[in-house]
Amino acid sequence: MIALTPIMVFLAIYLAVSLAAGDFYAMPITVAFVVSAIYSILLLRGKKLDDRIAIFSKGAMNGTTMLMIWIFVLAGMFATTAKGMGAIDSLVGLLLSILPSQAVPVSMFVAACLVSMSVGTSVGTIVTLVPIAAGLAQSIGMPVGMMTAIIVGGAYFGDNLSFISDTTIVATTSQGCKMNDKFKANIYIALPAALICVALYFWIGMRYESASEIPEVRFWTIVPYLLVIVTALMGINVLQVLVMGVGASFVIALVACDMSMIEWLKQAGEGILGMGELIIVVLLASGIMEVVRHLGGIEYVVSNMMKKVKSKRGAEMASMLFIWMVNLCTANNTITLITTSGVIKQVADKIGLDARRTASIMDTSSCIIQGVLPYGAQMLMASALITLSPFEIVPHLYYIYTLALILIISIVLQYPKKYTNRD
After folding, report:
1. pTM surpassing 0.85?
2. Is 6 helix (H, G, I), strand (E, B) or coil?
3. Cis before residue 416, ω within 30 degrees of 0?
4. How far apart, in whole angstroms, are the C-alpha atoms of residue 135 and residue 141?
5. Could you give the C-alpha distances from 238 to 70, 71, 77, 91, in angstroms and in order?
6. Rounded CA gap, 285 and 332, in Å?
7. Cα separations (Å) of 1 from 120, 295, 304?
8. Are the beta carbons of 129 and 112 closer than 8 angstroms?
9. Sign of the alpha-carbon torsion through 215, 221, 226, 228
């Protein structure tokens, strides 16, 4: 249990100071992570300081962390340079000229669902759509945090159901079921949540008047975003997508936007620097999670949560909570599923759970907890792109909360019946 306390220390410090000050900007998230990181290193008693730091650094320097940092750097370059040459204004103007303001929230949610299902990644969807959504929100007078949460929710709908999502691949292969079978079981949970939110976002959109001013549309400036969206839909790796987007913004800025190379390079540098806090947080969080793992925090969760399971309903509920606990420690839903899949498979075989149902619960549970983590990569990316605190986005994650409620109801009622019994 002590191994899990670094996470509690971070949350306690950040929330206590922010609530006491009445301002979530009052406590820098980096400072809260530094305190938690120092505390985690102190927990490694009986070892030399160099050895403690080596254990911490092993997590901070792993391949997954470095991949995220590459994505953040390129995303920062692309978002800033595209905005600097007017791409966001042009896209906002184009969408507002096509859509009534009342339809903007539901349209952006559906767009995020479709893009994420096509590309199989919530991060890629957030990078592509959040800047556009933020501009639309400002144009119609909607809180930017709420519009960003709409994109995040749609991104997780697609991530949960996509056939090329890494979480889908891990969940199905580890439990021994086909992807299309898992999709059929999953749709009973994800689709009702999405339909509820479509109705909710339509109702929310009725509050907002049409934009008083529609930005001028310069079609050449939209090309980098169209390139990013099309190549992402083709299933190209997110790093390659971002490199092509950055390259396109460079060429078009110089050729069609009368921007000098020095101006473009300055904006690219500002975009990278703007991701600095995010990169620091990811490095510190990854190091902390490695200490938690090294001290046996995840094993503790396994031994205390899974060993007493005896019923199907209990096994499904325990699997969901198990994934939530581990995801809190890893802040990565793919790593969480890889870590927990073996134990969940053993429990499923022992109790007699349907593999399609188990894979569905695993994937859905990981998307729910990752979607609300203020220190998860997706939330940090979204907040960095719009310069808001993650805690200004979290309260508006209506799709994630609806999905969690429906998943719990599905487990309690053991619905749908055809997936609660092994064939």
Report:
1. no
2. helix
3. yes
4. 10
5. 10, 8, 14, 21
6. 11
7. 35, 10, 10
8. yes
9. negative
Of 127, 115, 70, the residue nearest 384 (C-alpha): 127
Whether the Cβ atoms of residue 322 and residue 306 lie closer than 8 Å to each other: yes
CB environment 385-403: b (16+ within 10 A), e (fewer): bbebbbbbbbebbbbbbbb
Q: What pLDDT digit, counting tens, does each position of 46-100 carry?
A: 889 999 999 999 888 877 678 778 877 887 888 788 878 877 677 667 766 776 7
- Residue 62 gets the label, from left (phi > 0), alpha (psi -120 to 50) or beta, of beta
Round to whole Å and give the CA distance between 60 and 67. 12
Contact by Cβ (8 Å): 131, 382: no
DSSP 101: G
The answer to whether residues 34 and 8 touch, using CB atoms and an 8 Å cutoff, is: no
Side-chain-side CA neighbours of residue 126 (13 Å)? 28
- Convert the pLDDT of each residue in 212-269 to its tens digit: 565 566 778 878 877 877 776 676 777 888 898 889 989 988 887 778 899 999 999 9
Q: b vs e for 57-82, b when ≥16 Cβ sit within 10 Å of the residue's Cβ?
A: eebbeeeebeebbebbbbbbbbbbbb
Q: Give 262: exposed, middle or buried? Use CB within 10 Å, 0-12, 13-18, 19+.
A: exposed
Contact 72, 278 (CB under 8 A): yes
Q: Are 415 and 105 in contact (CB under 8 A)?
A: no
Contact 343, 307 (CB under 8 A): no
- Tell me the C-alpha distance between 397 and 145, whole Å: 10
Q: Are 121 and 381 in contact (CB under 8 A)?
A: no
Of 92, 100, 176, residue with least CA distance to 139: 92
